[in-house]
Design a protein that fits this description.
The chain is α+β, with helices and mostly antiparallel strands. It contains eight helices and eight strands; from the N terminus they run βαααβββαβαααββαβ.
Length: about 260
């Protein structure tokens, strides 16, 4: 289904103006369209993360309103919510939080979801571009197991997958994560050759362990499609329980990322 052929509407608001209804819609979208539990989820997290024997019956990862608030609307932080709707139906959204890192503004993408029937239309990038309006952060960051989310962030905030500057991630990732007001980001453990001396045998380059045991089959399929187009994937392999990590400096050359 094409969003462009229909009446696509974007809405943008900041907390505390994010309503309970918005959160209920966002939690429902995540629960229906984000992903399914991976093969180690039940072992690592408990029976609530058990999946069925076939793909069609696997337990989808559920998001409650309370968990959404904890992860995406941290207290005493500037939080922004952008959503896309078609005929009043929520088809995509993004949550982001801003905080001060080394005296300057940093923007973290805490959640990015697009309805399965509206994917591969550039909607994730459009959501992130709307998010960027009206603000001048010096840097952006995202953790995600899905290559499409990483690619969208690089298109919206950087120069795309063809011109990735991983030196920014290497230099600032540890301190940015430690400064985060979001628990799952603050508790993430860097993983990959980018943060160590020499390559890792498992092929990981830039990722972090977040204890998120989502199934990686859909991300692997998305990555295969990217590589099939002849595009190099610089983030390496993704281990179970991990997410890809990238930090992107803003367009201005005179900011903390160049220090």
């Amino acid at each position: 289904m094409s969003a462009a052929a229909q009446s696509l509407v974007f809405e943008r608001c900041e907390s505390p103006n994010v309503t309970d209804h918005m959160l209920e819609e966002a939690a429902r979208l995540f629960s229906e369209d984000y992903g399914v539990w991976g093969p180690l989820a039940e072992e690592k997290l408990g029976r609530f993360a058990k999946r069925g024997q076939s793909l069609s019956r696997r337990n989808r990862i559920r998001m409650s309103v309370n968990m959404l608030q904890r992860q995406c609307l941290p207290a005493d932080t500037r939080n922004i919510y952008v959503c896309a709707k078609v005929e009043d139906r929520l088809i995509g959204n993004v949550f982001a939080s801003h905080w001060k890192y080394d005296g300057q503004t940093f923007c973290w993408i805490s959640q990015l979801v697009v309805d399965c029937t509206f994917r591969k239309q550039g909607l994730a990038t459009k959501l992130l571009l709307r998010l960027r309006e009206g603000g001048t952060p010096q840097g952006f960051g995202i953790l995600s197991s899905h290559p499409a989310a990483i690619s969208a962030a690089l298109r919206a905030f950087g120069n795309g997958l063809d011109h990735v500057d991983l030196e920014t991630t290497k230099k600032h990732a540890r301190d940015v994560l430690r400064s985060a007001p979001i628990n799952y980001v603050n508790n993430a453990t860097l993983y990959g050759s980018l943060f160590e001396d020499g390559p890792k045998k498992d092929g990981a380059v830039s990722s972090a362990f977040t204890n998120f045991w989502v199934d990686h089959q859909e991300p692997r399929d998305a990555l295969a499609a990217i590589c099939k187009r002849g595009i190099h994937w610089p983030f390496g392999e993704l281990m179970e329980g991990h997410e890809y990590l990238v930090l992107i400096k803003a367009g201005s050359s005179e900011n903390l990322w160049d220090g």
